[in-house]
Every structure is written in C-alpha cells, then in structure tokens.
Structure to design on (136 residues):
C-alpha cells in the first residue's frame, strides 16, 4: 500500500505527487489497517517546521472542501424537500381536477362520445371537400 521509504533528492513535492510521499524527514510505513498511516520522523533533517506548515495548509484545504461539501449537501437536501412538496401539491391538484371532471361527466351525462364522433365526421367532410376542390 505505501512505500517503506521515499527519499527525494531535493525536489519540493508538497504532497501532490503521491499521498504517501513527503519531503526528506518524513516517510510512511505500511500499517495493518488501510485507513491509518504511520509517519516516521527522521531527526537528522531540520525541515520539520516546513513539513508541519505544509500539513497545516493541507488540513485547512481539506477542512474548506469538507465545509463546501456540507453546504452543498444541505442546499441539495433543501432543494429536494421543496421539490417533493411541489410534487405533492401538484398530485393533490390533479386528483381534485379528476374528481371534479368525473362529477361533471356523471352530472351532465356521458354524451362526449357523440361529440367526438360528430367532430370526426366533420373533419372527414372537410378533408373530402378540400380534396375534391383541389383536383379542379
């Protein structure tokens, strides 16, 4: 999982090349658990303050990213809750309109089939007349 000793020869890596590499003075060792990383500090190198500063900046970046993720998740949750309420209201409106339409059909009778047939005959007559007039 992690290399036992990653020693660079002077280049500044700032932790972007690999999550388990660091500058001279810190190196990682493999651990039994995959969620843990153990650091071995080499006291021979004096740039520990730079490493600590670099780690602090990385922790701040991660904290900012975590806060952004949290605020985005809250926004998405609020948006979905609002969308769900809108859908519930729309379903209630459709249900009421269908109920009203059914009551109207029962009250006035169901002669809408006759209207549909008459409309179809009228359309057929118009198309027939138009086809006869266009041939002349």
């Amino acid at each position: 999982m992690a290399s036992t000793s990653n020693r660079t020869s002077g280049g500044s890596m700032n932790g972007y090349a690999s999550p388990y590499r660091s500058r001279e003075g810190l190196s990682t060792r493999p651990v039994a658990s995959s969620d843990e990383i153990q650091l071995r500090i080499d006291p021979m190198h004096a740039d520990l303050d730079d490493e600590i500063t670099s780690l602090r900046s990385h922790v701040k970046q991660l904290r900012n990213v975590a806060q952004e993720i949290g605020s985005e998740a809250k926004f998405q949750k609020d948006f979905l809750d609002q969308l769900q309420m809108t859908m519930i209201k729309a379903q209630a409106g459709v249900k009421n309109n269908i109920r009203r339409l059914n009551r109207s059909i029962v009250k006035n009778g169901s002669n809408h089939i006759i209207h549909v047939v008459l409309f179809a005959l009228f359309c057929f007559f118009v198309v027939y007349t138009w086809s006869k007039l266009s041939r002349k």
User: Anything to note?
Assistant: Confidence is low (pLDDT under 50) at residues 1-18. The radius of gyration is 37 Å. Strands lie at 26-29, 38-41. The helical segments are 48-108, 112-135.
